[in-house]
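**User:** Here is a favour to ask of a fellow structure person. Please take any protein you like and set down a full record of it. No explanation is needed for now; the record alone will do.

**Assistant:**
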Amino acid sequence: MAEITAKLIQQLREKTSAGMMDCKKALTENNGDIEAAADWLRQKGIVKAASKAGRVAASGLVTVVKCDGLGCVVELNAETDFVAKNDLFQKLVANVAAKALELKGDFDSTLAAVKDDIAATISTIGENMTLRRIAKVSGDHIYTYVHNAMVPGMGQIGVAVAINGDGAAIDEIGSKIAMHIAANKPEFMTIADVDPVAVEREKKVFIESGVTAGKPEQVVDKMVEGRIKKWYAESVLEEQPFVMDPSKTVKEVVAEAGGKLAGFAYYVLGEGIEKAEDNLADEVAKMLN
């Protein structure tokens, strides 16, 4: 067995642009033969995947899966909306989500398990793809919702919410709570989850907006208190007016059904990813290069 040195790994990396660990594995599988290792990487689709790794992937699909009191929200990105319609990509998303559920929502373990499948799909379809993130929730009951579904269970917004309790009415409101989350996008579940620093920042923004200028101190205190209460109603799930009955909060609706919120997670496809916009001249230049 040939010795796999750092120099050999570096040479293969320079030749193929594949990752260090992939290069080491390829050399090990091919007894240190660089050409054979390079062919092996191409056969696995890793070289083609590496060449596309710098391209921004902001499209794709969000999916939600659940089993035995655990729910996972998974976002897998590709470069274009067109790929999200591809059966092969959708199959990859389903397989990745199933693996995420099997591995209890652990991102690193899931990525390690599906890395080769992603590389092979990149090689076949020809677009960069990334497993961006995984969120998990757990509780007695898990309810899910997918908005703008491309196919059942996969779309642009994915939600999972966990509710504890044994009230018979919990099943009647669980999916509605998931839909509420998709529509209202809360930042926190309970007031206790809110960082005190965030509360102070909100107070400061409100005061410095000039609304309280010239008001007596006691009036300012009341105004600030009202503003924070309103902010909680906007950002805290339990305090939000329930979208299907605004006369009640989400907390009240869940309690009436005999339950208590245990957790929630949602992803909006591509949220926070900056996608560069090329002009026509740039596109033509790329075609001519």
